[in-house]
Structure formats: C-alpha cells, structure tokens
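User: Fold both of these, please.

Assistant: Here is the first one.
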Amino acid sequence: MSTFDDVTQAIHDAPDGPQIGAFFDFDGTIMAGFSATEFFKEQIKRGEMSVNDFVETVSTIGSFSLGKIGFSGLMTASGKLMKGVTEESYIEFGEEVYEKQIAKLIYPESRAMVKAHLDKGHTVAIVSSATPYQVGPAARDLDIEHVLCSQMEVKDGEFTGGIIRPLCFGEGKVIAAEKLAQEHGVDLQQSFFYTDSYDDIELLERVGKPNALNPNSKLAKVAEERGWPVRRFTSRGRASTTDFVRSFAADMSLIPVFAAGLPIWALSGSKREAQNFSMSLFADVASALVGLKLDVTGERYLWEQRPAVFIFNHQSKADMIITSKLLRRDIAGVGKKEIGKFPLMKTIMDFTGTVLIDRENASSAIEAMQPLVDAIKKQGKSVLIAPEGMRTVSPKIEPFKKGAFHIAMQAGVPIIPIVIHNAIDIAPKGQYTYRKGTVKVEVLPPIQTTDWTKATLNLHIADVRAQYLKALGQTEPKTKEQRAKEPHESDSDDAATSRKITNGSKTPAASDGA
C-alpha cells in the first residue's frame, strides 16, 4: 500500500498501457524550487563564476523576471556564458549538484506519482524548458526514460554558445509532446500533464488530463475556472518554524534520554537494562516529536530469532529513530568515526555499545567490528548495520559492503533484512528538518548463515541485495561505464526530440516557469 494513495488514485483508475502519456514539468513540479538556482549557487560557492559573469547573469534574470526579455532571450544570454566549456565537465558538475542539492528537493508525492504511472505501463516523460544537464540526473533517479527539454549547441565536445530552436518552452512543449506521442503511439487526449506554471498553458490545453501541481497564482485561477485538479505539496521547500523546533528537539532528545538511563545503571548495576531503557525511550520520544508513524509488515521476524544481524537500507537520518522503534532492546550498532570528534556524542555512543569505524578503510573497518562479534557471542546481543555504508540520496539500493555479512558468519547468527521504503520522505540526505509522515517497513524472513563460506560470500550478498531490489520494486541500476556505452541521440534542429538521458550535468540559468 502506498503512503500517497490520495495523490495517485486518479493514476490507478486510468487504463494501463503505453498509449497513455504522463508528462511532468520539472522545476516546481517534480522538485521544489528551481534547478537553475541550485546550479547558480554552487558555481558561486566554488568560485567558478567571474564578477562580470555574475553581474551579467543577475541582470539577465532580472530582465526576464520583469518581462523585458522572453525565455528565448534568457537562454541566448545563458548560452553565451557557456561558450568554450566542455560538455563533459558540465555532466560531472550536474551529477554533483544533483546529489548535494537537488535530490533532497524532489517531492516524495511527485516521486510516487511517477512510479504509479510507470507501474501502469504509461509512457512517462519530463518536458522541461531547462536543459538535459539539469534534468538528466533526476530523470535517471526516477526511472524516466524520456526527457524533452531545451538544447544547448555542442560541437567537438564544447558548448558553442548557441542554442537549438525551437526551445522547449510554451508552444515548444506542445511540439515536443506531439513528436513523442507520434513516435511512441501516445494518445494525448488520454494523457496527463503536470505543471506548476501558467507558461505551460498550451500543453495543458493539448492533453486530456491537465493537472496543476503547486500552481502559481495565474495557473491556480485558470485551473479553478476550468475544473482542473489542483494539488499543493508541502513536503519539500522551506520548512516552518515548527518543523525546525520539532527536529531540533528530536535530535537533542538523545542527550536527556541517555541521562535518564544512568540512574537505572547506578541503582540496578545493569548497564544493559539502562541501555535498553534509553533506546526504547528515545524511540518513543523522538518519533512522537517528529510525527513519525510506521506501517510494518513481518514484525514477528524482529523477535523470532535473536541474536541476529539486522541490516537496513540507509536513506535518512530518520533511520536511527525507525530502527530504534523497531528493535527496542539488546542491540549494538555501527557509526562513522567522525562522531568521535564530539566528546558528548562519543560518550553516548560508547554507552549504547555503538562501534565507530572508518568506512573508507575496509580492512580496518572489519577489524574494528570484532567487538560486535563478541557482543553477539558473549552477551547475546543483536547487531544493527547498514550494508550500504552511507546514506543514499534516493530510495535506490547501492552496492553492499561485506562487514555485516562477516559479522553474521563469524557469530553464526542469521541475517534479518529490514527494508525501509520511504524514510527519505521524512528527511532526505542533506536536509536538517524532519517532516511528519508514515514510513512503510518490511521485515524479511531470517537468512541462515551457518553454511556460508568466504568463497561463497559474494553470491550470498548478491542474493540478499536481490531481496531488497525485489521488495522495493527496483532493478539493478546501470553503472556509469554502462551508461557511457549506451547510444543517445545527437542534438538536432528540433528540440522536441525525445532524448534518452544517460548523464547529467551543470547548466546555464534556465528553469521551467522561471
């Protein structure tokens, strides 16, 4: 069951099949805010923009905002600033900006809508006035094959400073959508288009199922007059003061909760009971402050075979609250060594039995995990560890490291996978505040490790990871090397061409509905 059934119901009610199109605007629709702003800020932060370029860019954006120049003028000015820059460098830059900034701005509701359309077998496309360098990484993350967008002219691997017309703006979006529809047998009268901007009125009127997502005032008025569905998302973008206060309180609750366990240790003499009390109390207090609820299936597997090595896919800082609420007691864990730089946090981690490791050094990390093997064998505790190592920027599963599996083998205990579906909705990587919500969790049956050997370990890890992919409805992502070998269409004189995105990149200042 989806946590966003209310926003996907119309999609579920639609017919199946590729003849149904689902076109998504990007800026303000799939993501909160404007991708160009994130690129602009990152360029300034890196010192990659000269004073003259900065002044010219700000002046151009100001002229566009005041209506002194049109979108074509904006793109023309932006294109000139790109002259002589290699496309490859922009591709790399765009990937970095997506991971650092844009990924956390993707609306979880929009992500759910895209997935619902894909599950129905619809032909899904992003149709954006931005460039493929802004949109590409997000399209790949969302499994969207088709990207219709404005194109910059490239020759011999460098931007020439020119743009390719027609741009994918206004009527240009209609041209792009019609071309894709013709090539792929899409019936536009049965198709959906989602946007936040009145600038897209032509395509809204062209499709049979126009939708206003987070609409600007002009589009909101037209949508109300014509009876178009209107939805506004608050899960991303500027957080409220209440969100900040709740988030700060949830994070800081670890300190008083730790302190609350000390009298139990002093009076009972049992450090373990104190640890269990603090862990369970933290789970309840922090989740209440955050407004976090869990929808758990397979909960019995959390208790049937202990001790065990519990593994989870790591999407969010909320995972610490989620796993505490699930596991409650008799748990030792792993943290990154950087935590040790803060004396109070190191004291708390030591108290809870958390081992701090250097994730960059595989051999030392495995050696550092020996106390966890001892905790299982000598104390009967279970171990909690994220085999991906670091938090991911999307729900997609990353490669698994071997540490958790070595621990299970050495201790002779089962692996129990905890599949977290949407913790990223609560707090994506790079975002401080938590948002209220329900997280879906699946606990899979225990996987015995008694007959595992070092020779077969890689196969076992692959099998466990495959269970995660299946539970999350994912396929094995392609590597950068595989994507680089894929053919993709060269730029033509028609920006309406559907371009299969295999790379992302840095971009000039161009955004949907800017």
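And the second sequence with its predicted structure:
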Amino acid sequence: MVTRSRLGIGAKWARSLLLFGLCLLLSVSCSRTSPNQPMATDGRIVVGTTAVISTLDPADANTIFANNLLYNLGDRLYTYQAGGTQLEPQLATALPTISPDGLTYTIPVRQGVVFHDGTPFNAEAMAFSLNRFIQNGGTPSYLMADVDQIKATGEYELTIRLKQPFAAFPSLLAFSGLCAVSPKAYEIKEGAFKANEFIGTGPYKLDSSGSDQLRLVAFEQYWGPKPANSGIDVQFFSSPANLYNAFRTGAVDLAYQNLAIDQIRNLQTGAAQNGWQVIESSGSGIDYLTLNLNSPPLDKLEVRQAIAAVMDRPLLQDRVFMGQIEPLYSLIPTTLPAQSPVFQTAFGDANTAKAKALLTQLGYSPTNPLKLEFWYRSNLVNDQLAAITVKAIAQRELGGMLQFQLNGIESTTAYRNLDKGAYPIFLLDWAPDFLDPDNYIQPFMECTKGSPETGCQDGSSFLQGSFYYSDRANQLITRSRQEQQPTQRKAYFDQLQTVLVEDVPFIPLWQSKDFLFVQKNIQGALLQVTQKVPFWTLQK
C-alpha cells in the first residue's frame, strides 16, 4: 500500500519577523485586531479556530480540522480510546478476524444504528461508504489503494479483502474519512462530492454550514452516549490575532488551531490569573529534513552524518518555539511504543566534535567550507525561524566549515517540485493519516522502483524528494506489514529505525505539541493524541 505523502500539516500562521542574529534572539510581534463578532450560543459551546476547510465530504477531506469535524459528525468501524493509542471498536462490535494469509478481514458491525436522515445502518451501508471513499477518487482515496474487495457477507457482517497483507489495516480503518455515510444521501461516482453537507451516524448532525461558521446539533437518535451539550458552534477566524482576542474576551469557549507562538505563551502565562484551562498534549505531527541523495555532495554518507550531528533540537525547542515542541530523534514519534531515539544515541545534539571530524575527513575547512542549499516553506514563519536558527547553529558550532544557503519557496510550489529533485535539503512536516508506526516509516523509506546506482525512481522516498533506495528497508517494511504478532512487528520497526540512522536519508528534528485553550466555565475538554477534540464531552 503505497501512501502518497501528505506534507505540511502547516497552518503555522505568518506574522512579523524581526532581526535575528547569531545570538539567536527572537522577537515575534503580536497584532491586536478586534475579534469577529461572537455568535449567540443559547448555552451551546463555541469553538474558535483559524483553520480553513474546503470540504466536509469524507471521501475528499484530508486536513486536520476537517477530519476533526468528521470525527464528531461521523463514526468509523474503529476509533481510539480516550487519551490513548489503543484501538477499540466503534461501528464494529469487535476487532476483525483475520485470515491466515493476512488478506481477508471479517468485521461484525453494530445493530440499532441509524443515519442522520433516518436510514438504518448495516453492513451493506458500511460497504457502500468504504467503496465510495475509494471509487469517488478524492484526495485521500490512495489510503485504500490496496483494497481488493469490500462487501457485506451478512446483514451485520462486513468482509474486506486486501491485495497484499497490511498489519496496520485496522488502524487505517480509524481514519476519520472512513466513516459511514447514508446510502440515500450519497452516490458512488467519480468526482461526486458534497462539500457543504454531511449525513452520517455520529453524535452530532450538521445543522448549517457557512464560510465563517458551522452549526452542529446533538443527534437525538445517536446509538451511543448522548453529547453533554445541545450543540457546537464552530467559528472560523481570519487570523490568529482575532482568535487570540476572541478567547481572551470570552467570545469563544475553546480555541484550537492555530495560534502563534507568542500568543500561546501569553495564554499559558495568563491562565492562572484568568482561570483558563490549558490542555497540552504531545502531538502526532513531526518536522524533519529531507536530504536529496541524488544531489552531490549529499550522496556522501559522511556529509549527511555531519548535518545530523550539528543539529541542536533543545535550542530550537527553547529559543524558537518557546517549549512548544519536543525534540525528536526518530521519524516515529514518542507517543508510539515502537519509537526508538536512534539519532540521539548516534549523534546527540550540537555534536561539534563529530561534525568537524566528518567534514575534515572529506577535506572541508573554514577556508574550504561545505556550502549547501537549505530550502524551507516561505509562507510558514515558524519554518523560516527554524531555518535561520539551523544556519546560525552551523555557523556558530563549526566556525564556517558548514554553510547553509537559505532559500524560501511557497508550499504549493515546493510540494509540486519535490519529486523533481529540485531541492538538496528541505525542512518539511508530516501529519499521519492513521496512528501507527507504519505511517511514519513507509511514507518515507519505501521505494517501489530503483536501485543503489540510480536511487529511488518511484515510491515514497521519491515523492519525499529524498530518492533514497534500500533493499533492506524495503524488505523490512514488507515483513512489518505481513507480521500480525506485535512483538515481532516492533522488532522490525527497531531494525528500520536502525537503517534510518545508519543511512541518514532524513533527519528528524521535532515533534509537535497540540494546545487547546478552554474557558474556566467549561468542563470535559479533552485533546487526543490523534489531534482530535471530542465535542460530545464538553459542557458548561
């Protein structure tokens, strides 16, 4: 199952950039514009965000906040336990029965469930929903590319057959877009999407949809525990400053995505005095450097190792992000048990001696420096600040032996050119489609066509702009996807992370933190590891 990269969880909103020198002192301004007018709530919960969504159709939605809305409007076969990464049934009544060859999944589904339009839910409706997700050809349809057949084999029994084994498939079925939708309200037809509607089985119904707000109402016929509130008003703000001021003045009950660094810090500082709740969680998003192995001198392992050695994650954490990120030493985040901090063991942080030794070995010196282009997304100020800091770190630690030449480019253009080999080094981020170590390894390290001589010519590392080819990595990925036994599967991921640090095609830098700000009169606020906020637990 080749997963196309979904790069750029982005939404790190642009703000003024002041002078930044080698002393690494940062100053980010905070505008003070008036917030949007608050909505009349009548006891409802108001959630404010600066996120932008273009569609609520689960077959075509693939952004974090759109998936958060689908998480609350719809149900999937599986979901995650509150506050954890343990998979549990939702519309399914049990974890799947898997055939010995790992290809056939038999899933019992729940009885007594109805859609928002009154249509009864059964296995046929679930099969319709999943087949529509695949056949309508929306943005996230690639996730189910290796599904061979989906059909109801009983009124309340669903059978899914894969083209090849994929041990993480149950976790994939928890993806928000794979929710059940009413067969009476939707059709299976390529390109047939309903951007402003949603009819599923979740605890909320979509009451109205507009460019600046959404109105959700509690679904009275919901099969599970009823929401603790009568409904949710989602208010979209045009800027982080507007959202920030709206929360400070009480115009919104919750603020989620995407406040600026200093705004988050100010709300944290003022929480005790104002009674605000600050909910902080290790996120599932990661930021990393992709290294183009087809771009000399990055084809030399020692060069890549020297770059890895000079990185200083704690400095980025403290000086740039004010503690709002966590250092990351693997592509797999710390929230998953399979994570192993291999880059910390091999290189540490700001390992000047190791970096100098590697560069000296290759003939580089302050008078004969290694010069490398370092690209970042110019529309994301946080990326710009991080790039400037990395450049300053290299200059300070290595005395000019390694010089990064910074180049910014707009995100859309960058993603379009990654697989063309245009960028030697690029600072990128990644948000998983489903919470499993496979979704942090396969989308980076797998190559479906290539060789050690040519590099990767097709597959995940090609799409990432790394062009990394490793037969060993390919074999380990295949074995990890075939292995159902958790201990052995983790052993494969241990080996894959060892390959990662031995070959250095990517350099992990930091793991995101998620923040949810809540007014003092609101109870039941939660922030999941999956970046989801359950609305149904909120109450005044």
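Residues 263 and 269 are 10 Å apart (CA to CA).
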